[in-house]
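Marked as duplicate of an earlier ticket. Keeping the data here for the record.
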Amino acid sequence: MTIDLHAHSTASDGTTPPAELPRLAAEAGLTAVALTDHDTFAGLAAATAAAADVEVVPGVEISCRLDDAEVHLLGLFADPGHEALAAELALIRTDRDRRGVRMVERCRELGAPITLAQVRTIAGGAPLGRPHIAAALAAAGITDAFTPDWIADGGRADVPKHVLATADAIALVRAAGGVAVLAHPRSVKRRASVSDTQLAALRDAGLAGIEADHPEQPPEVRDRLREVAADLGLLVTGSSDFHGDRKAVRLGECTTAPEVFAALREAAGGR
């Protein structure tokens, strides 16, 4: 088996329609792929219906707060219809859209020639996210969008948004029958770097695993994360974090071992 447990579609900030993801996964030699759009399961039905030789794993990537930083949690095998989880995701999406509108306004105040209508067109009906704003900025000739000058965390055009405490998100995922894996905990492209102590506390809160093999984490970081995971009894996953044309990352660029996939499924009650 070849397994990629982190991929996005046009239901959030990817460029691949959900129904196209299984075909691309098969072409990449995958036998299983998790659709983990940001704060939504909206693309899951279309992706599952289009699946033939590839298993589509239900998943979601949830924006969370860990102390004073934002991190992302993958909820794998969770029930999309679970009432409490669905309600929280709806709240996050609503606030994400509010934030996106205000960020566009801030970009315009800073002199960027972009419009809200343009960004909504790029989003294609998905809740507004920073990649959609970055695409509009790039079209206007501003290619360094994810910097303090523009929309990086804490940047001049950044706007706070509603996020769950990470422990609460873990509890919601587990209540929905899923397993929680912390995405890219030490990405070199993100402000937050999750410490060993924080990982231990999240393990105690019910975290099942950490994403070690990720395109934004160099080999020495991956090796250290494996060591920490072994010490804490956490599973180690690998994923591409595929966003279609929005990132120079191949679907299946990083993968998860079959025995880890089986352990995650078992922890989810065999879903």
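See parent ticket for discussion. The longest strand covers residues 55-66.
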